[in-house]
Amino acid sequence: MTQADQWEQQRPQTGSGELGLRVRAWYRNVVCPNCGAAVGRACRTAAGNSTDHHRARRDAAGPLPYQQWREEGVLPPELPAILKESYAARLQFNVDQPLGDTVAIVRHVLADQLGLSLADESTLDRLDDAARALVLARGPVGSADLVTVLAILVARLARDIAGPYDPDEVFTGLIREQVGRARQLQKARKGVSE
After folding, report:
1. Hey, which residues does 43 pair with through a beta bridge?
2. What is the pLDDT of residues 65-113, one digit of tens each?
3. Distance (Å, rounded) from C-alpha 169 to C-alpha 43?
4. 3-state secondary structure of 9
5. CA 110 to CA 103: how far, in whole Å?
6. CA distances (Å), 45 to each of 62, 68, 100, 139, 174, in order?
7. Which pLDDT does position 11 carry in this prediction?
8. Contact, 146 vs 138, CB < 8 A?
9. φ, ψ (nearest 5 deg) of residue 78
10. Would you call 51 helix, strand, or coil by DSSP?
11. 46: alpha, beta or left, given left = phi > 0 and alpha = psi -120 to 50?
């Protein structure tokens, strides 16, 4: 399983593994205000059946210490911001992973135009970190796809931004145009194969 696959599953799963045991122990650390279950014991329904925990007990126990559990290695590290942005772009445009990654990287560049023009080291470091996170998460094949799509977009954007346009609007229009063309091509291929 790649690092990206681990990161895609953002919501921690509380099954029977180590994390599940910790979650149950956390909630059972307080007396249940709903059913009166003692510390360390499972909650009970009105019929007397065992249940994981009541909402009142969960509220009384407080928020789970996810950050502490990440530091202890029970949970995978938190999802880097660039991967969250890539996922958001994939949802926004309904596109595949390489194009979503590219949208996220280009948006980082567009957001930091001033820092780039001033050759600010911290801006360049942030962009390097974002690109590194994507490369590590996607592996060699995904990284090659990212670079290919990125090169095409940079070439198109360099031509289109030369005028007095808002770069973000130009970029969003470019992505929508590419997605539209790709979908038309897919429909045409389906029509030919049928």
Report:
1. 51
2. 888 887 887 777 777 888 888 899 889 888 888 888 888 888 877 777 7
3. 54
4. coil
5. 10
6. 21, 31, 46, 48, 56
7. 46
8. yes
9. -65, 145
10. strand
11. alpha
